[in-house]
């Protein structure tokens, strides 16, 4: 069996902790490990894993994966085109690299779900594999525990074998009233978004129901990469699952959540005696049934005489919502985009291929950053037209290039970079190189950069 882990989403409903360039699969919501690491560990009994992400997140993924996962293939989508193009690109990659046979089984799973216990999950995968080998596209159905409007629903039909059924139809995210009606009927299950199929069935259904993607898929992996933007932006649910006659559902008796909202985070997290789910530094008084999520190690959040709240605090944004209303966070994010898109895309700590930077202070004519360059990495050779920069190294050692001059730097070294000066810095030490950058000038935007050389292909 080959496994595809989809890790290219944005997770906007978990804003402000989740941002476009640092989405929820990298968050440590329930342990000291990001969700994607928990997903990979849950699949640890299987070999031949592939992660499909996007180019803006691939370098973050490489940093987050431990040595235990260094044998996993990673492909990056050139642009975001929904689940079917991502799955088709991944299947094409696997087909060519591993010379897949027609009946090779492929399992597709998101990277950011919470699923327990692992033993039952593995058993469900093996049960789904039996039906996939018979030519079905199998999804896992979860028994609803509440009338959720954030999940799609599956209506099961005739029985195939124990706990496995043909699918009559899919119902997209319903109204609350409709969801209440559905969960009263034992034929309806939540659509988990996990799929299993043999290669030949996927290709046949792709050709039948999505000819645009199939015509490009049929020309090979490299051709798909270079023409990725031409692929129809559509989910596998809409394109294939809702139309195919080969859809099946295996009932998964699991504790499952797709962590699609702060309400679902509250439901999964452990609670104290007052029903509060707390992460980070917080103090409560007469507070009950609330989520407090605090990213800061220094700031204290206090809550007095409140209940049923969602409080999510990050260094640059605070969300306060009533429990049950977290699906509306996406609307807030859409409003913010018009006025401050960076607040949706980036945290104050921004990950780059070479390391990270964090804005410590800024005003109209200055900006102060803390910059980390990982071991062996190097910033692009660049210049700025509108600002001067002052660098002070606080940890590590490296080499700074100023035009044609190379200067060795270490702790407490100071460098002045005048505008229109070509410059870069490379970490030549054994640890992370950290320096403080003070920018001064008439314009301090991130787009005031002209690159000449870059090891990460950004020129």
In short:
The chain is of the alpha+beta class and 459 residues long. It contains 12 helices and 28 strands. The chain is 23% helix and 35% strand.
Describe the structure.
- The model has no long low-confidence stretch (mean pLDDT 93).
- This protein has a six-stranded antiparallel sheet, with no helix packed on it. A five-stranded mixed barrel has the order 6-9-7-8-10.
- It has helices at residues 35-42, 58-64, 83-97, 118-133, 176-182, 199-209, 211-217, 221-226, 236-241, 262-268, 329-339, 341-345; strands spanning 2-6, 49-54, 73-77, 105-110, 114-116, 137-142, 153-161, 164-171, 188-198, 247-252, 255-257, 277-279, 282-285, 291-294, 301-304, 309-314, 317-322, 349-352, 355-362, 366-373, 381-383, 387-395, 398-402, 405-409, 414-417, 423-427, 433-441, 450-453.
- By secondary structure, the chain is α+β, with helices and mostly antiparallel strands.
- Helix content is 23%, strand content 35%.
- It is built from twelve helices and 28 strands.
Please outline the helices and strands:
Blueprint (H helix, E strand, L loop, with lengths): L1 E5 L28 H8 L6 E6 L3 H7 L8 E5 L5 H15 L7 E6 L3 E3 L1 H16 L3 E6 L10 E9 L2 E8 L4 H7 L5 E11 H11 L1 H7 L3 H6 L9 H6 L5 E6 L2 E3 L4 H7 L8 E3 L2 E4 L5 E4 L6 E4 L4 E6 L2 E6 L6 H11 L1 H5 L3 E4 L2 E8 L3 E8 L7 E3 L3 E9 L2 E5 L2 E5 L4 E4 L5 E5 L5 E9 L8 E4 L6
Parallel strand pairs: 1-2, 1-4, 2-3, 6-10, 12-14, 13-15, 14-16
Antiparallel strand pairs: 4-9, 5-11, 6-9, 7-8, 7-9, 8-10, 16-17, 18-19, 19-20, 20-27, 21-28, 22-25, 22-27, 23-24, 23-26
Helix pairs in contact: 6-7
